[in-house]
Design a protein that fits this description.
25% strand; 3-stranded antiparallel beta sheet; two-stranded antiparallel ribbon; elongated; alpha+beta; 5 strands
Length: 129
């Protein structure tokens, strides 16, 4: 379970416990935050980049191909229809032929976060007051 808590002390700052790690989220000062951490949308966008690079690295290692670094520059935009567009630019250091490049392009969108964001998700909410 991931637990996130906010208090009235620091406007929108939240502390999140994930396994043995703590994360902080906040809004930027332009959005009335204290800039204690990335915003929830930035965390989500970072998760997409992290998942994509991890998925590619797992595949490349499984194939026994040589690779240097894998970088995903990610961003998002809120569209006028209130939908969200995510953008990923991937850079891979390595010598990959056309067939390998084609396969890597097919593997990248198979990361679990990409599939979660691109698919239909259901969110259930329960309450305690």
């Amino acid at each position: 379970m991931i637990t996130t808590k906010t208090t009235t002390k620091d406007q929108y700052k939240t502390d999140t416990a994930v396994r043995d790690y703590n994360l902080q989220m906040d809004n930027s000062p332009a959005n009335n935050g204290g800039n204690y951490g990335a915003s929830p949308k930035e965390h989500l966008t970072a998760a997409l980049g992290g998942c994509t690079t991890m998925t590619l690295k797992m595949y490349i290692e499984r194939k026994g191909w040589e690779v240097g670094s894998i970088t995903a520059d990610t961003s998002f935009e809120m569209k006028e229809d209130r939908s969200t567009a995510f953008h990923i630019h991937i850079s891979i250091e390595g010598d990959f032929d056309e067939k390998q490049q084609k396969r890597l392009k097919a593997i990248a969108p198979k990361c679990p976060v990409h599939k979660l964001l691109a698919g239909n998700s259901e969110i259930t909410v329960s309450w305690d007051f």
